[in-house]
Write a structure and sequence with these properties.
single chain, 129 residues, mainly alpha, 7 helices, transmembrane, membrane
């Protein structure tokens, strides 16, 4: 339990620091992204906590993969500059979403949480401009 909380706080620190170091904070720390994840975290925590504290903290540790979003955003910006193509930065969240959802899948126990995360990711992708 304590380990999962520390992993979550480590995610926050790494996400924010890497956003500023890579100069992608205008996208990764925008009001929409922060507001979405705050609401998502509250709703997600309530639903995940219905299955017990251990389940909740195991799900919280999956957020650690989102710490790599600023790196993927930076790489996508580099691809856009070097190859003169237009790849949307929202795809940086897709990589982290897939990795976090499919790590230790255990779909039978996580079915409702996985569906919630998929729906929330769809709303997020449709809402970011």
């Amino acid at each position: 339990m304590i380990r999962s909380i520390l992993v979550f706080f480590e995610f926050l620190v790494v996400y924010v620091l890497s956003s500023f170091v890579l100069h992608v904070e205008k996208f990764t720390l925008s009001s929409f992204v922060l507001g979405f994840f705050a609401i998502y975290f509250l709703v997600f925590s309530i639903i995940a906590s219905l299955d017990g504290k251990n389940f909740l903290f195991n799900e919280l540790s999956r957020f650690w993969f989102y710490a790599f979003v600023p790196v993927f955003v930076y790489l996508i910006f580099l691809i856009n500059v070097f190859f003169h193509i237009s790849v949307d930065s929202r795809f940086s969240f897709l990589f982290c979403f897939l990795i976090s959802n499919f790590r230790k899948l255990d779909f039978e126990n996580r079915k409702k949480v996985a569906i919630l995360r998929l729906f929330a990711f769809y709303v997020f992708i449709m809402g970011v401009r």
